[in-house]
Fold this protein.
Amino acid sequence: MDTISFGLVFLELVFGRLDRLPGPGEEVFSDEFALSCGGAVTSATAAADGGIRAGLCTMLGDDFGTQVVSEHCAATGVNLSPCVQLDGPTAGITVVLNFDGDRGFVTHLPPFAMSERAELERWRNVLRRERPAWCYLHAGRWVPDFLRDARELGCKIMLDTALGDARNPRDRDFVIECVGLADVFVPNAAELTAMTGAADLAGAVRAAVAWGTDLVVTRGADGALVVSRDGSVAEVSDGVSQVPVRDLTGAGDSFAGAMMAALIGGASIAEAAVAGNEAGSRAVSRLGAVGTVSADGTGAGWPLSPMAFREMVRGLQVSAVDQPGALGREGTMR
């Protein structure tokens, strides 16, 4: 395989164009809805779209989220052989609410998704077996040893982070340690500014040069900044399309996956950022990290057939066991 994306996957229930969020006891309506999937599958999908052999390393269960992810990967050519099959639910469930120019999330993680340290040991075994040219993952507490293994095996590393990790002082040191072991770090502007504590993006870039890793900082409609290890900065706006922004979910992962495909094809980092801009523009123009999954083989589709709907409800109920408030009276979904 050319690339493997490591991490959790999610079933996404995506609502677009909310005028406001509901208050207690209120209900609001959206004209737009999509069933999608996200997490590590997003970057793998973008890499496969770039024409390379892309793999996904995650946990696959017997839940509806796994079904959607598996069918999507079969349709898009993402290789699932690095995955492990488990009994029970493994995919997270995320409700995405688009409002006020951004989005918010309500997410449930099943117990399997909380076993990060054990899963990382399996990732290391996959890495030794498959030896991809590039691997993509998010920084974390137990990730540095994995990155050291990747470097010893000659695998290139594209690293991302999440805004919550960047803002949390307890996690920030682990993230920075991971960055120093990566080949390319792809935060967005808000994440990099939060990590460095700088007053603005220019100050954040100057501070991050000391980490010794090539940076590609995504800036939405303004494109990307490519920051070399010597501190030189190039603005890359080629590839950005002026599209209606429907949902920002998955734009960064799509950017990274497209970049890896371009790098494997021989592009420079700046040239690969153009491909990333193109993928990011496509991502924000649709609902859901990989877009709406459909009944033609790219997922269960929406509207769901009665059989698929019953399976979705069953999967959500299984995932919600012992979660107070997830089920209404007599086990019916609220």
Summary: The longest strand covers residues 9-18. The CA atoms of residues 14 and 34 lie 5 Å apart.
